[in-house]
Amino acid sequence: MSASIGILWRADRGTAVGANPLFDPLAKAFAELGVAAEPVLYADDAISEVRAELLNLGAVLVWVDPISNGRDRSRLDSLLREVSARGVWVSAQPEVILKLGTKEVLHRTRSLGWGTDTRLYSSVEEFRAEFPRTLATGGARVLKQNRGNGGIGVFKVELLAAEGRPGPDALIRVQHAQRGSAREELRLADFMRRCETYLGNSGRLVDQVLLPRHAEGMVRAYLVHDRVEGFGHQHVTALMDPAPGETAPPLPSPRVYHGPDKPEFQALRSRLEREWVPQLQELLGIETSSLPALWDADFLLGPRAASGDNSYVLCEINASAVFPFPREATAPLARAVAATLRVRVAGGPSGW
Asked: 109 CB contacts (<8 Å, ≥6 apart)?
């Protein structure tokens, strides 16, 4: 087995690889451990060439979004399954992403300490029957397509007038979380018909209550396997009301990155490492060695405890293309992957 590691991202294969903020720091970190890292440029029309490159590697770290410019990961995931079966260590495995990195995980883990009022719609019929009833309970809801990124297919929905179970002609206000989207007012039936596309091909829609403190900021915890190795903090504005005279929400502030020891996030770190990640693994059947080499979990602020301490509510897990990430996570990521690769090259059990 090769002792080289590939770092794969989607790009034009005819483009020369120059300075790259993803590849270069990781390649340097691997080099310091005596491990060679190689770029792998992925394109759907070059499967044979990419396959040949991957089969010459011992491991590959994959950075490809679920949805990008109308393209999905279906062909890439098939390729990753193939090369994994032929001995290449892949992170993250497509099967693990389907368990961990889709919005359905919010429903499956709703009983954990990070959960909130969360519903799952698995068919058009279920969506038509249940979503109006949920809207009638009061307050805004957040609908999320099962697999996506960049706010695509994420909507804040609220009734314009209080009523019992709203009918198809009930007026609603909708804000798409995709950047630059304008707020709309339309009939409930028209919006629900639009959403039915997310339920095709065994799709899912996840429905969460809008958290009152959503505008106070999102905390992103970055994990290498089961250990927190950094944080990001950002004021997320995608579902905020537009300013007077505007049709779209304000732009978000830049995300600020921190190492794992940031004092104000230690309660979250402790709960993740000691409670929530082990519970997640048990619930989903994921061994520590199969967790993504790098993944992140996004949290919004929930109700304050009687002590005044914050609670945290999970709103997304990212396992497909976690970038950028705190520089403090680079060395732990390289060490974990290099250790796994060396064990595999030596013929021992996989792990880190």
From this structure: 115, 279, 280, 283, 284, 314
Alpha-carbon span 247 to 245, nearest angstrom: 7
Determine the Cα–Cα distance for residues 65 and 103; give it in Å rounded to an integer: 14
Q: Residue 72 contacts by C-beta under 8 Å, 6 or more apart in sequence?
A: 66
pLDDT of residue 197: 94
In sequence order, which ranges of 166-294 are alpha helices (DSSP H)?
188-195, 266-271, 277-284
**Beta strand spans in 110-153 (E):** 118-121, 141-145
Q: How many CB atoms lie within 10 A of CB 330?
A: 19
In the block, tokens 């060679």 appear at 36
The SS3 of residue 220 is strand
One-letter amino acid of 21: P
Quick check: 210 and 258 in contact, CB under 8 A? Answer: no
Angle at 335 between CA 331 and CA 338, to 5 degrees: 135
Strands 59-63 and 5-10: parallel
> In terms of pLDDT, which residue wins out, 162 or 11?
11
Using CA atoms of 174, 177, 182, 184 in order, give the dihedral in degrees to the nearest 10. -10
- Split at pLDDT 50, 70, 90, the class of 349 is very low
Phi-psi region of 166 (alpha: psi -120 to 50; beta: other; left: phi over 0): beta
16 confidence band (pLDDT: 50, 70, 90): low
